[in-house]
Every structure is written in structure tokens, then in C-alpha cells.
Amino acid sequence: MGAKRLLGAFLAIGGVPLVALGGLIVHADIAVWPGGVTFAATALSALAVAYIWLRDIDLLAETLRQAMANQGPALSSAAAAPRIPSVERIAHGIEQLARGLANRAGEIGVLLRANQAIIERLPDPLLVLAPDRAVLRANTAMRTAFRDEIPVLLRHPVLRSAISRAWTEKATQTVDLSLPVPVEREVQATIIYFDPPLADGGQALVILSDRTRERRVEAMRADFVANVSHELRTPLASVIGFIDTIRGPAADDPPAQTRFLGIMAEQADRMRRLIDDLLSLSRIELVEHELPSTRIDVAELVRGVAASFEPRLAERRTSLILDLAPGLPTVPADADQIAQVASNLIENAIKYGREAGQVTVSVSAARAGVVLVVNDDGPGMARVHLPRLTERFYRVDKARSRNAGGTGLGLAIVKHITNRHRGQLQIESEEGKGSRFSVWLPIGKVDG
Ligand SMILES: Nc1ncnc2c1ncn2[C@@H]1O[C@H](COP(=O)(O)OP(=O)(O)OP(=O)(O)O)[C@@H](O)[C@H]1O
Ligand SMILES: [Mg+2]
Predict the structure, then answer these.
(1) Which ligand is nearest the CA of 413, by number?
(2) How many CB atoms sit inside 10 A of residue 83's CB?
(3) Which of 115, 132, 280, 432 has its Cβ near the most Cβ atoms within 10 Å?
(4) Do the Cβ atoms of 67 and 93 come closer than 8 Å?
């Protein structure tokens, strides 16, 4: 408390009575000594009142300051309670007000946390954008689906222009996007614009809903019908032709009938295999954007698959060398699908490799992952075919593949399974020297 403020308060309280008393003493209306005592007593009491007044006001100001700083009641100290009753009541009122505010703030906090928990657990990826379009918040689904790629997502031209439209029109926008990485995904984005902004500064919500499955189902249905009708027509026409022959020209020729029935059985079997492969491909495509949830030991799995090829190896007099590195890490993978990859590659190596040749199958560690390599020393393929090998029904030598019972879907299946595992398929081949198919699978996050 400054001396200047004390002097000011003292003069405000005691100034007038002291000047009046002084005047009376000077003009001898009052005897000097009782007058002097009264003067001194008045001055002292004015000083005491001024001191208590200033001190209480300071205490009040301090109580307010603390209440504001704590966002709650002031830290009360018994040693410094205001002395003037009305000031004490004001201080008490401030304390109660602050306590009430603190309770309200607590309640608001609880509501806010409840809202945040709802947003966090929504199954659809969601972003909250600030007025400057920066990301304020991303929920768990968004962080899981896009990890570090949220800025990339926001730079998607279709999404970016929809966000701009939401800002200029101040209205909700809905757009369909195709996200190319890490796997192709069809997504519907809804941008909900808030005017005025939300209490936490959020100007808009961006909600993504995955439409991949629905779009895939539509596209697959169309593909499936086209492929099947095309690929089934040949064997079906052949079966119908033989039925006509058996009924007509060969009606009385049992040896010819037996021969034709054999061909018909082969054609029917071919149709069955085609349908099995197409269905298997459809099932893989349906889950292609979902990462597998189990972890497997690829080397062990490949050992089992390779063993199942013994009869085929003997038939073609092919020798198989298995080179499995010990102590490899597990990878997130679907065991049945990886077994199908190994099986399709080994089957091709035996089928298209040379008779009495050598097939090498190895599993080893590579670039934060595990790589399966199937190598053969067969005739190989010309470079032009390599980029197209994984297309459905693409065969280098149609007749040879058909004779070997191939449907042309084996490598398409391998490619889709590899994609689903976020892996990589590499095909190398040199005419006259052989082919080499490598499938790399990432180790992924070990703690899931
Ligand atoms: N190791 C290989 N050496 C030479 N050519 C190969 C090899 N693997 C595949 N090919 C060629 O690639 C084509 C496509 O292979 P893919 O496995 O997709 O079909 P397929 O073997 O004909 O039929 P499916 O595997 O469905 O029975 C084959 O027809 C063959 O011409
Ligand atoms: Mg094959």
C-alpha cells in the first residue's frame, strides 16, 4: 500500500473535520488543550479508517484476481480477511460466484469429453477443420486409415475443391473420391460447414465413408459376367458339339463315344476350374482393402505347400530346391491366401518350366519384410508379356496353357493377394533362361 494512496484516503476521510476543528481552535472558540486532543484523536481515527479501507479494497482486488486466475474460487487465507462488513460480504459473494463458475466449467468439461469420445469412436474417418482450413482434430478411424497421409488426402483435387465450395457457399458438400494409395479406395466425403464456427474453433467437419466394397461389388458383377461368358463359351460349345455328334453321326460307334465323353469330361472339368478361380478372385477383391489381422511364418507355410507338389514334380521329373532362411520374422498375412500365392507360383514353375528342370523356392528377409522367390530354368517369356501377365485370362501361349489346364487367372490371383497384403510382386524372365517371381510382404507394425 503506497504512502501517497494512504495520504489521499486519509485526506478524503479526515480532511473536512480536521480543517473545521483547526478553524475552531485557531479562532479560540475551543480551549487549546481539549481542542488539540480532539484534533489528534480525529486525525488518528481518520488514518486508521483510511488504512483499513485501503487494505480491504486491496484484499477484494486480490480475491477477484485469484478467482480469475484460477478459474475457480480464490485461495482464501484466514489471516487476510476484510474488516469492513460490506467489503467482506462482497468478497464472500465473489468466492461463491467463482465456485459456481468453476462447477459450471467442470460440467462443460464433462460434456466436451463426452462429445470428443463420441467423435473419437465413430467408425467413419472424421476431420475437424479450423477457419484457416488447417486440421484441428482427426479421430481414431481417420488416423488408422490414413496415418501420415492426411495432408495428402486434403490435397486431393476433388476434396480440395469441395472444401473450397463449402467455404464460399457456407453449406454442406458431398463428393465421391477415388483414393489411389496405399490401395485403391472409393470414398464418399461429406463436408459439413458450421456458421458460426463450433465452440472449439471448428469451422467444418470432413467425414469419409468407404464405398470401396459397394463399388467393387458393382464392377465385379459386370466383369464376372463378361469374363465368364467369354471363357465358358469355348468349352461349352465343344461339349454341345460332342453331344450332337454322339446323338447323330456317332450314335452307333461306342469307341468314338468313349473318346468324346473323355473330351467332354475334360471340358467340363475346365469349366469347373474356371468358375472356382473366378470365385476365388472375387472373394480376394472383396477384402483387398482390408489388411489381414493374423501373423504367419511364411517359411513354414511354404515348406508345407512345396511338399504337396511332390507328385507333380515326379511327373515332370523336376527337382525342387527349398531354401528357407531360419528365424524369419512373422508377417501380417492370411495363411490361406499366401498358400495360394506359393502354390500358383510353384505350379507355374513346374508347368511352364522345362521337363526335368530345376525349380528353386526361397524365403528370406528383405527390406523390412520377407520375400518369397520362385525361380525356374524353363523357356522363360519375352519381355513384352511381363507387364500383362497379371491381367485376368492373359496367357503367353494360349494353346500351351489350355493344354496344361490353365485358366489364365493364377497370376491375377497372386497380384490381388499381394496387393491386399500391401506387398510387391516382381516378375523377371529371360527367354531361354527361365523366370523368377518374387513376392515381398512387409513385416508391418509388430505391436499391431
Ligand atoms: N514360370 C513361368 N514360365 C513361363 N511362363 C509362365 C510362367 N508362369 C506363368 N507363365 C505364363 O503366364 C501365363 C499366365 O499365368 P497364370 O498362372 O496367370 O495362368 P495359367 O497358369 O495359364 O492358369 P491358372 O494358373 O489359372 O491355372 C501362363 O499362361 C504362362 O503363359
Ligand atoms: Mg498358373
Answers:
(1) 1
(2) 12
(3) 280
(4) no
